Every structure is written in structure tokens, then in C-alpha cells.
Amino acid sequence: xxxxxxxxxxxxxxxxxxxxxxxxxxxxxxxxxxxxxxxxxxxxxxxxxxxxxxxxxxxxxxxxxxxxxxxxxxxxxxxxxxxxxxxxxxxxxxxxxxxxxxxxxxxxxxxxxxxxxxxxxxxxxxxxxxxxxxxxxxxxxxxxxxxxxxxxxxxxxxxxxxxxxxxxxxxxxxxxxxxxxxxxxxxxxxxxxxxxxxxxxxxxxxxxxxxxxxxxxxxxxxxxxxxxxxxxxxxxxxxxxxxxxxxxxxxxxxxxxxxxxxxxxxxxxxxxxxxxxxxxxxxxxxxxxxxxxxxxxxxxxxxxxxxxxxxxxxxxxxxxxxxxxxxxxxxxxxxxxxxxxxxxxxxxxxxxxxxxxxxxxxxxxxxxxxxxxxxxxxxxxxxxxxxxxxxxxxxxxxxxxxxxxxxxxxxxxxxxxxxxxxxxxxxxxxxxxxxxxxxxxxxxxxxxxxxxxxxxxxxxxxxxxxxxxxxxxxxxxxxxxxxxxxxxx
Length: 489
Ligand code: ADP
Description:
This protein is of the alpha/beta class. The protein has helices at 53-68, 70-73, 76-92, 94-105, 109-129, 165-179, 193-205, 219-228, 241-253, 276-288, 305-320, 339-354, 388-391, 407-415, 430-439, 472-477; strands at residues 19-21, 24-26, 33-38, 43-49, 144-152, 155-159, 182-186, 212-214, 232-238, 258-261, 267-270, 300-304, 358-361, 378-381, 398-404, 422-426, 444-447, 466-467, 480-488. It binds adenosine-5'-diphosphate.
């Protein structure tokens, strides 16, 4: 992984600015555009096509045509081969995609490169599984044969957020391709560039027109129109709880299934027998990776009293070493994605300061950076359970610590919110950790590690953190419908 600095000139291609529909670039039907901003400089990178109902209708209609044409007749193994070609092509262009991502959302280039590699792995996993999704035979007894056929659900809608713009596109479209669906993607308005470039790449490697369509635009305009479109048969959304609720209600009108991966306020519970060096090391990526803009970040540290000071000291020592700067400078933390997000995090920090909590490190803009949406790595302790910092998803580089004495208190704190995405436990006693894990209300439990998993491991939330699972084979089943065929002999 290269730590070198980059400049804008390292991007040896133009910035995409048009929708990609039916195998071609399209200006917006209404000729409208919206700006996409470089959060490291606050400058406008380019104007992008702004989609509304008419653009969505073109894209969904193209996808529906694709579902009835060449795509439908390809064997699953052929689809898989096409996907392997796509992964190879993306790998060959990893730097271009990484630079586009960095310009659009500000993350250090080395992180963007890591994300692109993750996307290649995602595509390859799903490519390999394309011809392994099997139905079953059902024992109705003599006189009958009954079996199931797994069929693509049809045109699927993919509404993605801005924290991993390309990663989130791939996480949902790759399993949809494996299942044989045709897709319409609505990238976040903050980060449309890599999704648009990705659609072009799919076309270049031979995906039939209409299988991958990307319509850029705002959520209330393009996103809502996509969810409501009558030809859309399935919806996958990753984003905030509030938007997830709106999308679910919109989907319900059309009785469409929706997979929703929403927010989290994920507790990392550190018990008194934990390996503190390990925990404080993992906590750096857990709390500050991607500047804390991660649904599964370790956004609450629940610390057993006797080890709390030592853990926080170690965490602060590690956090002080992190470099903050423009994504192209390729340090450890880039800016937050937008002014809106920056203002939101600043208002949480102000609320924290006035609540009596202690800011142990950071607490605002790094003094050396006078433009860009930067927030320094921040550690806040003495936060009580009622504090907004302990209850709401901040989505910035802010580690929040709460203390407990007994395991029951830890459980009550961990489970006491509406969220249920990830909970983590650090303890050298695996029985103790697993006993606690059983009682944690979360879609994933991580023990003695953070961000454990990969494309093979299903992820998703319970409670207000979402519905359904992505990744792994369950991720592909989201896009398959079961047809039962019964035969009387
Ligand atoms: P945030 O609030 O963090 O910006 P959101 O959860 O609102 O994130 O956005 C995630 C994605 O959902 C984006 O692509 C956004 O445009 C889209 N979106 C927002 N509102 C709606 C909506 N009402 N219907 C469909 N998509 C939406």
C-alpha cells in the first residue's frame, strides 16, 4: 500500500457527469445538474446530471428490457465469467477508481485503494457463487415430484450511501448480477463519481445494455421515484434510520421486499481481563477509520471501571499519532464528506462539551487545516447513558467512553438503545465473552477483534438497525425468488 502523496493530475481521466442508462451516457431528461464537492477543498469538482422521475423511468424500463433479453438467456456460469472479467478490469484500473473516490469523499487514497480491492473481492465471491445457488426437492410422497427453481426477482433498485460509495454499490449489485437481476443504482448525491464510472466499466467488459444503470440525483427526487417505480421488484438500501423508514413505507405501497442496512451505535465492551493493547489498537480503526463514517464503527466504548483509565490512555497515545489531511495527501484521516456532516458532528461536540463530559483529545477542527471539512480524532469520556453522545450515531471521528462495574450493567448499556447492528466484547476468557455475546442484541457480535468479516460473512442489523442480511450466500438469496414446481405422476 503506497503512502505517497497524489495530485489531481494523477487522475488521468475526465470526471463522469452523466447518468449511465441502457449502455450509454445520458444527460438528465430535464437538463438539470447538481454539484459534487471535494470535501478536502470545499471546491466544486463538477456538475452532475440530476435525475428525477423521467430519468428513473428510462433506467427502469431499460433494466426491464434487459431482464427479458440476452441477460435472461445467459447461463449462471456465463454471468459468473463476465463478473470475473469485471473484477479483473477494475483491478487494472484500481488507481483511477481510488482517485475518483478520494476526490469525491475525501478518504486517503490508500483507503480508497483498499476499498477498490474489497470491491474486486466482492465481485469475485459472487461470480463464483453464481452457478451454485441450488433449489431443492420436496418429498410430497409417491405420486408426486416437487422441486424449487430459484429465479431472479427482476429489476432491483440499489440506493447507496456516501461512506463507501463504490463498496456499497458492489455489495448489492454483485449478488444481484449473480442471481440474474438487472439493476438501477441511485448513488448518494455527495458521491456519484465511482458508481457512474463503474457502470461504464461493466459495459466495457461486456455486460448487456440495461443490466447496470446508474441515475444520479437527490434522494427525495431520484431515490423516491426509483423505489416507487412499478417495474422495480426489490429494493436494497444502506443509510440512515430515518431514510430507511421512508423507503420501507414507500416500498410497502408497492408490496416490494426491502433489505435495509441502517445505522448503529455499536458498543465495544472491554472487560477487566481483556488484552488492552489489542483492544486499544483495534479501537483506532474502529472509531476513527474512514473518519468514523462507518455504520459498524465502534462508536461507544463500554469500559469496566478497573481498566478504563489504562485503556483510554493507550487509545489517546495511539490516536495522537494519526495524521489528518486532504485525501490526496494520503495520511490516516481525511475530511468528513460534506458541510452538512461537518456541522452535524460539530453540534454533537458542542452538546458534549456543555453536558459535563470530558474531552480527552481533539474536540474540533485541527488548527493547521483552515479549509475542508476536517475534524481531529476526538476522545470523550465521563459520558452518562442519557447523554446524546451516548445515544445517537455521530458518524464522525469521535470515540465516546462510558464506564460500568458489573456485566449486567454492561448488558443494559449495550442493549439500551434502539440500534442493534454490532456489539463487541474484549476478554481473555472466551466462556465469559460467549456468555455475554448470547445476550447482546445485535446482528453481529465480534469477540477480541473489530471489523471482523468479509464478503463471505452476512451482515445486517436487528431492531432499528435494519431488516435482512447482505454479503455471503444470504446476500444472493435476496435477489432470488423461489418457484415451486409440482408434478403429479
Ligand atoms: P445521510 O442522511 O447520511 O446523507 P441518507 O440515509 O439520507 O444518508 O441517504 C442514503 C441514500 O438514500 C442516498 O443515496 C440518498 O440520496 C438516498 N435517499 C435519501 N432520501 C431518500 C428517499 N426519501 N427515498 C429514496 N432514497 C433516499
